[in-house]
Amino acid sequence: MADLTKYEILINELSSIEGLISNLLHKNQELVEQNADLQGQLIQLKNENTYLTQKLSSVEKEIKNQNNEGEINLFNSLNSKERENLKIRLQNLISKIDYHLSAG
After folding, report:
1. Is 67's pLDDT higher than 90?
2. DSSP alpha helices (H): ranges in the chain?
3. Model pLDDT for residues 81-95, shown as the tens digit of each residue
4. Three-point CA angle 18, 38, 21, nearest 5°
5. Where does the pLDDT of residue 100 fall: very low under 50, low under 70, confident under 90, or very high at 90 and above?
6. How far is the C-alpha of 73 from the C-alpha of 75, rounded, in Å?
7. In whole angstroms, what is the distance from residue 49 CA to residue 96 CA?
8. For the purposes of burial, counting CB atoms within 10 Å of the CB of 44, is it exposed (0-12), middle (13-18) or buried (19 or more)?
9. Which long-range contacts (CB under 8 A, 24 or more apart) does 14-23 make?
10. How far apart are CA 36 and CA 16, in angstroms?
11. Cα–Cα distance between 57 and 65 in angstroms, integer?
12. Terminal CA-CA length for the chain
């Protein structure tokens, strides 16, 4: 009778271990699928980043060419009131940034 009880305990423990392994395999499969999705997103974001970097470079070249060709610079096109307004807004922005940096 004692041998039967030990056998039942062993079977129960093996069943419990089997359940844990099944759960781990299921979680592993979910993580593999999630990893594959994330890899896909990473590739997509890298491609988008490359595209945006190229576009930014193109726009920078265009702006540089416009400035070299004697086009009116944005800041030179502002009148004195607009310049003063821009200066005040920039000073306020710098003050906010300084405040946040000193608070951190």
Report:
1. no
2. 2-68, 80-103
3. 888 888 899 999 998
4. 5
5. confident
6. 6
7. 30
8. exposed
9. none
10. 30
11. 12
12. 70
Buried b (16+ CB within 10 A) or exposed e, 73-87: eeeeeeeeeeeeeee
Please give the structure tokens belonging to residue 7.
């056998």
91/98 Cα distance (integer angstroms): 10
52-64 exposure pattern, b = at least 16 Cβ within 10 A, e = fewer? eeeeeeeeeeeee
The residue type found at 79 is N
| pLDDT per position as a tens digit, 4-59 | 788 899 999 999 999 999 999 999 999 999 999 999 999 999 999 999 999 989 88
